[in-house]
Amino acid sequence: MTHTISRGKGSRTIRTAVAIGAATLGLVALSACEKPTPRATVTVGSDSASTEAACYEDNGKISQDKVLSCTKEGTDTSVTVGQGDLLRIGVDPEIAEDGWVLFLNGQPAVTDRITKTYRSFSGDAFFQNGGDQQGGRPQSVQLSIVEYDGSNYRGVWNFELERESED
Description:
The chain is α+β, with helices and mostly antiparallel strands. It has helices at residues 9-32, 64-71, 93-98, and strands at residues 39-44, 47-52, 55-56, 78-81, 86-91, 100-104, 107-114, 118-122, 140-148, 153-163. The longest helix has 24 residues, at 9-32. The N and C termini lie far apart (88 Å). Mean pLDDT is 82; it is low at 2-6 and 26-32. This is DUF2771 domain-containing protein.
């Protein structure tokens, strides 16, 4: 014995409504998501810290005042640097394409534009200036990677570099 299930106009209407509803929810979900910013990474030995931008504009139009403000924002992304350690900085290719410079504690530190995705520095160099009240080296500094094409700023990535205690 064969049974036939008839599908009337009602089931077609329900399927159409479900399809439209699913498509609408998908569009709403996509519009709620922001495209993530490019990432920057700081590595010392086997320790690595990576972050998205504190400030970022796709059109490359961040004012100098906004950049200075962003380089002074706090961050919870940190890495410990010991005496003699090599500090490696890596940026996404789209940051390197425009070029980038470094700020320490909100002040320009390396102003020659870097156009590579990777650069190494002596970690000791970041703790030479701006010491404590007694003239010693600081325990921590804020490193900011600033995307800069030579005329326009596009983004700022902040890291806290903590000096390893010399016990």
